[in-house]
């Protein structure tokens, strides 16, 4: 999670001011540049987005898969590792508060004092992660890295990568509109000062945060994050894809980022989302299965957030190159150049995949 340095609200600039090169940043991204009749991007854009989850993949400390414990998530190291592969964006968490210069229960200095330190010879405090089931793991990975601020991410991450900034808020806290506004204005101040043409999109599970970040600025796309009913919340706007569509349409949001299981449980929602002129991106562990990702590509879903960045990005890159008529420089036993074949599924195989995916969903 990137930290947000505290600022005074009076320092926040005019939030509707478009920073230099912002149009270029939106053009190269997959996301629509406007809603409600606004002109959209006309330049060439990727047909299918691949985003690195928290950089080159989230850390699942309980997993037996070493790839899930390779590089510290939400770190400059992880972001730049993801940039080595053919992806468009990295997704990462930003959480901050202004009034007392606190990040969740920690000051900024306390937050940055955990884990590896930037100053040589300085030992940081250990980090732990509590899972939803109550288990606690010490946060140990193969390649560790210091925590970073949002400003540092803009300054030090490969400029070819766009940022999907997830606005993180506590599900158990009831925020006033003034509290949300102060936090979001501080984040926007950093983005407007440091984006410098980089593609940026905002997303949040917090419905009012998504609504407000759209209201506060008209430069960067805003997406509503939802698990589509996999968990039930007191806020009914979070409990289905249909309520997510309504939230987006009511507030001029650009699209939905849904847990992939919700989409396969309710595939008809894909058509309703597209008919509403909204984009649809998915996230979730099933997105680490190439066949599942390819199925979404065929369904017209516009992109995926993945942990296995190398494997999924290369799979999608192969598919899109073949569709565009490009050949890979591969050589067979006869020494002649051969093109990688696009995966071909018969109607029976597609039907089998659609039946298989729900079976995968029941796995922990």
UniProtKB/TrEMBL annotation:
Its EC number is 3.1.4.46. It comes from Hibiscus sabdariffa (roselle). The lineage of its organism: Eukaryota, Viridiplantae, Streptophyta, Embryophyta, Tracheophyta. This is glycerophosphodiester phosphodiesterase. Residues 48-316 form the GP-PDE domain. Keywords: Glycerol metabolism, Hydrolase. PROSITE patterns: GP_PDE. It catalyses: a sn-glycero-3-phosphodiester + H2O = an alcohol + sn-glycerol 3-phosphate + H(+). It is an enzyme of class 3 (hydrolase).
